[in-house]
Each structure stands twice: as structure tokens, then as C-alpha cells.
Amino acid sequence: MLAQRVISALVGIPIVLIFIWIGDFGFRLFIALVAILGAVEFFQIAGFSPSKPLFLFGVIWSSLVVLSAGSAQWSPLIITAGVVLSLALPALLPKRPGFMLHWVWLLGGIMYVGWLFSHAVLLRNLAHGKEWVLLALLVTYAVDVAAFLVGRRWGRRPLSPQISPGKTWEGTLAGLVAGIVAAVLLGFSLRLPIPPSHLPLLGVFLGVI
């Protein structure tokens, strides 16, 4: 597991950095691709068959939400159409048990993956956008690695066995500490326009999220 994380970081981080630097439509396309991969995983976990219309609709619409991010004209239209069509599509398909449950999973996946990922595009479009995206990603990575290493070595008390049996309180606290340290160091090194006293709070916020 640790080796996979290290290899993924060595391969993935340079690619991410390139697209963060490029920005504009190149970064938007990259995030849309990431959203597609995330949506595929989400809908598979939710039990949607990849060959079914609901699965394809969810994946495609998740990417459209990302691609339309920041557009005053298209973003509300895409999100509204996603809500309406996600309700209409199951109704047009052959009736089967769990109609509303399928709709909830479909709409939930689009918002959870597409809408949340669209904020990476919005963040990149801000002033100092490159630095803000780097801060968000690297603090998240620091939290994840610290929580994994400490939880694996010293973790004893489960955090939420029903959701993730491997998560522990020890790992969670280590992740929060790592988030604070990473946010402070990155805030100064990236010269972000934020008061120094806010950086630890930002680290806590990102660690919790």
C-alpha cells in the first residue's frame, strides 16, 4: 500500500504540476478527466453497470459540470439539466425496484464528483491560483500520508469502522498535525496573500475536510 502511494506520487505529482502551471482550458480538461475516473469508480461502487445508460449519464455529466465551472451562462444550466435529466432518465427506463434510490445515487455521484472537482477549476482561476491549488493538494497529501503511516504503526482506536475499518483516531490526529505544519510551511514558501495567523486554521480546515 505504501509503495503504491509513493509510486503514484512520483508519477502523478509531476503531471499535476504541469497542468496546474498550464492553467486555463488545459487544466480544466485535466480535471474533467480526473472527474471521469472518479465518477467511474463512484458509480461502480454504487452498483451501476458500466453498460447501462445511468452509468454513462453520470460519468458524462460529472465531466460537463467540471468543464462548465465558472461560466455564468453554462454552469447553472448544466447543473439544473443534470438534476432534471437524472430524474427523467430513470423514469424512461424499464421499471425496476429502487427507482428513487437509483436517482439519489446518480445525482449524488454527479454532485459529489463533478461539482466538488469543479472547485479545482474555480480555485485555479483566482489570483495566485497556481499557489492555492498547490496548497490544497500538498496539504491534503501531507494529511493522507501522515494519517496512513501513524495509523498503520500506532493506530489502535477505530475512527469509524462502518465507513472505513482501517481509519484510526491516532492516524486522524497525526493527519491534522501534518496538515497544520504543511499549511504553515507552504503558506510562507508560496507567498500566499493570507495573514500568517490564518495558516494554522487553514491547515485544520483542510485536514478535517
Quick structural overview:
By secondary structure, the chain is mainly alpha-helical. 77% of the residues lie in helices and 4% in strands. A hairpin with a 3-residue loop joins strand 1 and strand 2 (164-168).
Task: Kindly describe this structure.
- The chain contains eight helices and two strands, in the order ααααααββαα.
- It is mainly alpha-helical and 209 residues long.
- A hairpin with a 3-residue loop joins strand 1 and strand 2 (164-168).
- The two termini are 22 Å apart.
Instruction: Give the strand order of the largest sheet, numbering strands 1, 2, ... along the chain.
Output: 1-2
Mean pLDDT across the residues is 91
Q: How many strands, which pairing sense, and closed or not: the largest β-sheet? A: 2 strands, antiparallel
Q: Which percent range describes the beta-strand content?
A: under 5%
* Rg over C-alpha atoms, rounded to the nearest angstrom: 19 Å
Helix content: over 70%
Secondary-structure topology with pairs:
Layout: H1 2-22, H2 24-45, H3 53-67, H4 74-92, H5 99-124, H6 129-154, E1 158-160, E2 164-168, H7 169-189, H8 199-208
Antiparallel strand pairs: 1-2
Helix pairs in contact: 1-2, 1-6, 2-3, 2-5, 3-4, 3-5, 4-5, 6-7, 7-8
